[in-house]
TrEMBL record:
Pfam families noted in UniProt: FAD_oxidored
Protein name per its UniProtKB record: FAD-dependent oxidoreductase
GO molecular-function terms, A-Z: 4 iron, 4 sulfur cluster binding; metal ion binding; oxidoreductase activity
Keywords, ordered alphabetically: 4Fe-4S, Iron, Iron-sulfur, Metal-binding, Oxidoreductase
Source superkingdom: Bacteria
Annotated segments matching region Disordered: 1-20
Biased composition annotated in UniProt, kind: Basic residues: 1-16
């Protein structure tokens, strides 16, 4: 295995290799060594580029880099593992799932080392460090606050990718690309989008200073949202309660924010334990089933591996769900927007673990190409 390299991080964040900064010319500086990812030299050549630093993208990058590939992981926000870190999804039986997933196993190991495991619950701050540690261990480079623009192909094979940065566009030479973005931003330009009648959105909010036990699920009807189902869980902090708000449609975080002034009083009315508490936090990301799902059109139905269905039974992921090497070799998809992917954001634990597994399967599929 290669020794870990300095990870590329903009905006002056501290890193063991030194201060990483973004200059006015659009260069990324690691310590005193400038790296122009648009230059025509070896600095912009990667064996694989993964777009999306959520759970699936991080798992895919881990699998690819672990096998010795030079990997670049691109994330639009400032943290990896956004579904846990930003979305406040934090309940899962990691020891059980570690037995079947190397990515979960490594994440769990680093989470435990950072003191972020509380017998069934994860500390989101420690989870962010655990995801960073996974990438550093296998030597994957990470770029934050960059956006996918397009993939380039010739004769049915990936030849590169284009990133959108705050200072312009940058091209990367690569033969392997994973689309692990939240809504299939690259997949939509290559494959067919299908309206999803099962769109669903979950937002997590926190209250502090609560007294008494969490009540069971409550629901009410709100104009423009329909039926809102709310469930309460105690976190590891005394007096803290996490409320999960679920609706059967796509609702953006900005729309949730506009409606929270009317939602919070209703929650305190429905959950007596919240009556004297303070509303303290809104998840930075919503956890959602997208409005569109994507299919490749491939007839390659070989099994790529398994996730879990809604009842917890093994569910086969096929090679044609992840990509179509006959039409576009070197491109894999790792998102819950895949057609047929068993994903329900209200099933928190299963959704989190399926994201890990799907990323692993996408990485393995590219290793087999």
């Amino acid at each position: 295995m290669r020794a870990g390299r300095a990870r590329v991080r903009p905006h002056g964040r501290r890193h063991p290799a030194g201060t990483v900064e973004a200059s006015e010319k659009g260069w990324i500086t690691v310590g005193n060594q400038p790296l122009d990812i648009g230059a025509n030299d070896s600095a912009d050549a990667y064996d694989a580029v993964v777009f999306g630093g959520g759970i699936g993208g991080t798992a895919a990058a881990y699998v690819l880099a672990r096998e010795g590939l030079r990997v670049l992981l691109c994330e639009t926000t400032g943290t990896l593992g956004r579904e846990i870190v930003r979305g406040r999804n934090q309940f899962a039986d990691l020891p059980r799932y570690s037995e079947a997933s190397s990515a979960v196993r490594e994440f769990f190991r680093y989470l435990t080392l950072r003191g972020g495991w509380f017998d069934g619950e994860m500390d989101p701050a420690a989870a962010a460090v655990a995801f960073d540690s996974m990438m550093e261990q296998v030597g994957a480079d990470v770029l934050f606050q960059v956006w996918p623009s397009k993939v380039c192909a010739e004769d049915g094979r990936i030849t590169g990718a284009v990133l959108a940065t705050k200072t312009g566009y940058r091209s990367i030479r690569t033969t392997k690309v994973v689309d692990a973005t939240g809504h299939g931003k690259l997949a939509r330009s290559r494959f067919e989008g299908i309206p999803n009648p099962d769109a669903r959105t979950v937002l997590h909010v926190l209250f502090n200073g609560s007294e008494g036990d969490c009540e069971t699920e409550r629901s009410w009807t709100a104009d423009g949202l329909g039926v809102i189902r709310a469930s309460c869980r105690a976190t590891y902090w005394p007096g803290e309660r996490r409320i999960s708000l679920c609706v059967d449609k796509f609702v953006s975080r900005s729309e949730w924010m506009l409606r929270l002034p009317s939602v919070v009083p209703e929650l305190k009315r429905l959950f007596p334990s919240l009556s004297g508490s303070a509303f303290t936090y809104v998840g930075d990301d919503v956890w959602q089933t997208p409005c569109l799902r994507y299919r490749t059109g491939s007839v390659d139905a070989r099994a790529a591996g398994q996730v879990e269905d809604a009842e917890g039974r093994p569910y086969d992921i096929r090679r044609n769900m992840l990509g179509d090497p006959l039409r576009l070799q070197g491109f894999a998809m790792a998102g819950y927007w895949l057609e047929g992917m068993p994903f329900d954001p209200a099933q928190e634990e299963r959704a989190l673990m399926n994201a890990f597994r799907l990323g692993e399967l996408a990485g393995r599929s590219l290793l087999a190409d």
